[in-house]
Amino acid sequence: MPFEPVTQEKLSHGVVRQIEELILRGILRPGERLPSERELSERMGVSRPSLREALADLQDRELLASRAGAGVFVADVLGSAFAPALVKLFSSHDAAVIDYISFRRDMEGLAAERAARVASDTDLAVIAEVFAKMEAAHQKRNPADEAHLDADFHLAIIEASHNVIMLHMMRSMYELLREGVFYNRSVMFKQRLTRDQILDQHRDINEALQSRDPAGARAAVEAHLTFVEESLFGQKKADENEIFARKRFEIETRR
């Protein structure tokens, strides 16, 4: 018969499963420091030996990393998504940028559509909170803050779709974006009109999600990323034209 005696689970196994779930769901993020051993044992209601056993297991499996004198951190599990040679190749070819934006348009459109259906009220509150921070940063005209919150907004949507595979895949993609591998996000904020349009597009996305409109949320995401693509390459073309214009001006002033 396929039955075995029921045994009480070790407390350390329960700790492991809880931390695994927090990492899997993206609640504990790469590089994030865990609370102190004392605080963690109190919060989880386990003894320090049980906690240490669990943390040691997670470190052996490279989900956590201990830093001398600093504490225990979530390991950088995103770093191995792409080989360094491939990352370098991405950064030197416009075709990779086009494909990257196309990939995001497909994946994030799907995530937004799904989030509008399955997100909890708290998920939508998180998205709304990030958008409120975007509005505040927009008034300060800080491109770095706006770019950071832009990424957080899109990741909040992916988190709200509750697909852990998509979450970790897209987190990896956004790390490359933040490092400027695909394109420099500050280019998108050079002109006031572009900045205003981008904020309005995120407002449209947020409103569709808060209204739980799957088709509207997907359409708003797709329209936004199409605008990003057109603006990015339009700015690049304008920069190239300016180089040649300056050369012509230099020659003209010498005649």
What does this structure look like?
It contains 10 helices and 2 strands. With 255 residues, the chain is mainly alpha-helical. A two-stranded antiparallel sheet has the order 1-2. The longest helix has 41 residues. The model has no long low-confidence stretch (mean pLDDT 84).
Structural class: mainly alpha
Strand order of the largest sheet: 1-2
Low-confidence stretches: none
Q: Assess the beta-strand content as a share of residues.
A: under 5%
Q: What Rg do the Cα atoms give?
A: 23 Å
- H/E order of the elements? HHHEEHHHHHHH
Secondary structure tally, helices = 10
Helix fraction bin: over 70%
Distance N to C terminus: 98 Å
Largest sheet data: 2 strands, antiparallel
Tell me the overall shape. Answer: globular
Tell me, rounded to a whole number, the average pLDDT: 84
